[in-house]
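pipeline/complex-builder :: batch 7 item 3
reading input block
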Amino acid sequence: MSELGDNASAFYAVIRRDFHVFLSYRTRLVSQALTSVFSLTLFYYVSRLVHVEGFTTPDRYFGFVVVGIALVGVLYSCFSVSETIRQELVAGTFERLLLSPFGGIRGAVATTIFPLAYAFLLATITLTVGTAVFGLELHWSTVPLALPALVLALLAFLPFGLFFTALTIATKQANFGASWIIALLSIVGGLYFPIALLPEWAQLAAEVQPFTAATELLRNLLVDAPMETSVALALAKIVGFAELLVPLSLYALHRAIRLGQRRGTIIEY
Amino acid sequence: MSGVLTQADLEIAAPAPRPERPLPLSLRGVSKAWDKGRVPVLDRVDLDIEFGEKVRIAGRNGVGKTTLMRIAAGLIDPDEGRADAFGVSPVERPQLYQRLVSFLPAGDRGLYARISVRRQLDFCARIAMVPRREVAARVEEAIARFDLRELAERRVDRMSMGQRQRVRIAMTFLPRPDVVLLDEPLTSLDGEGAELLYGAVRELLDEGGAVLWCSPAGEHTAYHFDRTLMLEQGRLVAA
């Protein structure tokens, strides 16, 4: 129990560290919230101008895309961890984590928590502004279910950040191709438009990652968008990806750190 | 002594041909070459540090002192040989090893620039797995012991190099380790800061801990060491 409590205390320390570093940049929340508002404005008017196949009204497409915008932030935050670890390597603070009983792996995992919580806050702001300013209609009876669904989805998304963190530790290059992956996932995950519009071969890519299922499920829960598959199948996919990818990503992180220690490159940046 | 190790731990962790009582720090046949085929920077180095002993390693710049310290800290692995603290290997039991050994790296790195000294120390205590109930007291103790009261709420990037070094030293001693590795600890310190460091070292040695101190050859210090060794061509020799 004490060991568990001390571990929880160390996780808390990392989250609080990230929170205080975040607070020290005073305009960050305002600037990022404004970016979301601008995106909402843009897509609100796009939804008025363009008729998108499969949507009966402009508001249906707007609801569809608002959830996509909210999830893009979550996607970015998953990948931002590798950039944070890169900065820690440069500052020598990752070394401090590595040479503590808490260790580098738990330190890296703990480093993912604040950005994800922050992305959740930004997503909430996006949905709130969408509802209050642009008349987004949330499906209130199922909105509370979106929270556990998002937590589950985060477990499936998190390994992508950890894989990139492992890559950063091994190559010293942050976000090695991450922006391409995010763009690709935004397309095949159906964040801005239905994947049915994609060519068939691209639709296959939609099935081999957890973003499509998570996006579809969250859209259904938040704005009552119809699902291509059943809720149970979407949940099974998300859980399956999480079960497979979480241990694999932790193993990759372990191997990257040990490789750096064996070669002596863990001290490089 | 921190009391982290139990007798059972020592019996399990101790390799067979060792002395009956595992030493605070032991390096055996440690070799490291930075490029394959080149002359190793460390060549089958052996070093034993006894309870209550303070050992200095000196040598010219680039001779491999920091590499030796990093291996002793468990940060990097040797190509050959091994490091142990109380018979515990940093590779086999990293979590336990890091409870026993604390490392002050050379330079001014390892601090979070934008958070205060007090938060920095709190962070350090928690990742060192200091029991939760003791964290606040340990932080206050470190602030008092290293005379950081006036700096406690100040951000690190608004402090002088000497003040930062004092914070780094406070973070090194805060978890109450049994073995402390100090790589050029006097860097940027004024006389008062150096006295605080000497006091912390003395206290650790009085409690049976051990200190490995590394500094360049010719560094002017009146500080007394139990042994001073020179690192030359990858080998440790008596100074």
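note: The beta strands of chain B are 25-32, 42-49, 54-59, 80-84, 101-104, 179-183, 210-216, 227-232, 235-238.
queue -> next item
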